[in-house]
Amino acid sequence: MKTIKPNVLQYMMKGLKKYITLEHLDIPVWSTRTEVYLGDGVYEPGYDAEGTLSLGDTWEACYDCARRFNASVRIPQSLAGQKLCLEIDFGGEALVKVNGEIAGAVSSGWVNRDRIFFDAPTAGEVFDIELEYAVDAGSFCDAAMEGEKFVTYTLCTARLVAIDPVCEGYDFDVNVAWQAIDLIKDDYIKARVYEALDESLHTVDFDFEDARVRKSIKKAADVLHDKLAKIKYLPQSEVVMTGHSHIDIAWLWRVQESERKTARTFSNNLALMDKYPEFIFAQSQAILYERTQKLYPELYERLKEKVKNGQWDIVGNVWVEADTNVASGEALIRQLLYGREFFQKEFGVVSDTYWLPDC
User: Fold this and answer.
1) Which of 73, 76, 80, 92 is the most buried (most CB within 10 A)?
2) Which range marks the domain in which residue 54 is found?
3) What would the pLDDT profile of 236-247 be if each residue is shown by its tens digit?
4) How many CB atoms lie within 10 A of CB 331?
5) Rounded CA gap, 167 and 215, in Å?
């Protein structure tokens, strides 16, 4: 029987979230200190002395702040051998290192990302975690652009979480299908997708113990995939989607902040490529690559490998994305010459696409 009220299905989808987490371990206390980033990889001592902060405490950041948080965690038997993520929300935006290696980035700003994934750690393994926090993009726009005004953040979440991959995958699938319904123009196809979601979600035994619910989610995922596969349609076109990050070198923040912003952005997308081999990311602006090469050589080497295997797409050819309304012809030619020379020398490629997000 068809569920008439769509909000019923939305309520059921929200109910899936709790089953994604199998176990978790809180990381309640962090040592911390503040530095100021001067650019070109140089830091100086900041305005706060070293100390400790706990979940629920607040901290402050402003232009060029580098707030560091450190903690060590030993993996318990309950989390060993499972798909694991580090879930962090301290406000702001941070580059995350685990055992000295860049693992990715987290942000509580406009683009919310709070998880760093790991594969099957062993019991007793130690994670030495270092977070380098800065003001997030939204706070730059809302507060920090006024000058040296401080932004206050709260240590909300810090924990290691074991993920149920079946439940996580099903949650992704139902939400994508649900969001796609409003985009479908064909009433027949729209109705069939709704029916597939409806039947699938009603396969989940929400009213029983966790073990039975998780078992039923596997069945529900099979129902959804089977029903969607049987929908007959004639594709009108092919849509190819790639990731991209539009980084203004010197607009919302000072030039040196773009150096750290680039590291956070690039590390995030490299982590996504490792997790999702089909994911492709396109990035312009040779200056971002040059800064990464100098300041974060480990990221640069990983990036070069992704260019070789086709996951990282170099576009644009220019040194910096230019405002083409006011620049002279000579300036635009110089942008192309320097950008193309760098990409050809470093990667052996040039792009056929002139990237104009702010033309």
Assistant:
1) 92
2) 21-163
3) 788 888 999 989
4) 12
5) 9
User: In this structure, is residue 285 part of a structural domain?
Assistant: yes
- Co-location of 76 and 172 in the same domain: no
Average pLDDT over residues 101-114: 87
In a domain, 359, yes or no: no
- Cβ-contact 189, 41 below 8 angstroms: no
Q: Are residues 149 and 192 in the same domain?
A: no
Residues 57, 263, 161, 167: is their CA dihedral positive or negative? positive
Number of domains composing the chain:
3
Q: Residue 47: is its pLDDT beyond 80?
A: no
DSSP readout, 288-315? HHHHHHHH-HHHHHHHHHHHHHTSEEE-
DSSP codes, 115-162: EEEEE-PPTT-EEEEEEEEE--HHHHHHTGGGSS--EEEE--EEEEEE
- Residues 127 and 261 grouped into a single domain: no
CB-CB contact of 138 with 101 (8 Å): no
Given the DSSP bridges, would you call strands 281-283 and 243-244 parallel, antiparallel or unpaired? Answer: parallel
292, two tokens: 């990464």
For residues 333 and 248, state if they share a domain: yes
Q: What is the mean pLDDT of the chain?
A: 91
Dig out the tokens for 22 from the structure. 């199998």
Q: Is residue 237 part of a domain?
A: no
